[in-house]
Inverse folding.
């Protein structure tokens, strides 16, 4: 069955870089777009960006300058890296699979990230 | 950028009631809307896609409607397990979410 699981550091210091891995099973990354969404107390659910089945990426302009999404298809993993973290980046980060209808049909359980010194 | 505005922010409903919540897009998005349910400590779950299509396994008491800029999610005969946050989302081009509606049971 389809499963997604995010793993990440939990606590990151301000100005540092956040790295999160999304490991998927039950489908191929070369057949689906993979999305990243975060949920913060200040802004709620925010779409961050995605990586296409072919490997190209698109980013929300709110994050474009500091966000990078990549993948390793051999390991069934998608990666999110965001630099210059601020306290307001504290929140839960989710990876999700984009369905054929553009909606997000499967989500990971999310990883809580706290930005604090 | 398109802004998705949901109303009301919260509502308190009795089991068995019918409830309708709203989602308004700042520009015409056609039927490119999805609805999600999120319970505390859980990730969002897809309910509706393309504004009015029920996702696999979603009970038929959930109905989506609307086109263009105004959309609704209706729950007929609300059940206790429906207490949750509900979010609309514009899909394609930029997957913007609304601020959510919190559904509480009396």
């Amino acid at each position: 069955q389809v499963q997604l699981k995010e793993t990440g550091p939990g606590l990151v210091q301000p100005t540092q870089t956040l790295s999160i891995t999304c490991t998927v099973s039950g489908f191929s990354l070369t057949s689906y777009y993979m999305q990243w969404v975060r949920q913060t107390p200040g802004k709620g659910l925010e779409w961050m960006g995605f990586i296409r089945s072919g490997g190209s990426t698109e980013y929300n302009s709110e994050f474009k300058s500091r966000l990078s999404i990549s993948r390793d298809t051999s390991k069934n993993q998608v990666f999110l890296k965001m630099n210059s973290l601020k306290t307001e980046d504290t929140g839960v980060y989710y990876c999700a699979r984009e369905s054929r209808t553009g909606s997000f049909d499967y989500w990971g359980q999310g990883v809580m990230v706290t930005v604090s010194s | 950028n398109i802004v998705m505005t949901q109303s009301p922010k919260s509502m308190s409903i009795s089991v068995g009631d019918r409830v309708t919540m709203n989602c308004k897009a700042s520009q015409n998005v056609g039927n490119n809307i999805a609805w999600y349910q999120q319970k505390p400590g859980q990730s969002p779950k897809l309910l509706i896609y393309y504004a009015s299509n029920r996702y696999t396994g979603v009970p038929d008491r959930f109905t989506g409607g609307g086109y263009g800029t105004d959309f609704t999610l209706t729950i007929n005969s609300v059940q206790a397990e429906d207490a949750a946050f509900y979010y609309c989302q514009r899909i394609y081009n930029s997957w913007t979410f609304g601020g959510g509606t919190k559904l509480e049971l009396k």
About this structure: Chain B touches chain A through 23 residues (CB under 8 Å). The radius of gyration of chain B is 13 Å. Strands of chain B lie at 4-7, 10-13, 19-25, 33-38, 45-49, 53-54, 62-67, 70-75, 84-90, 101-105.
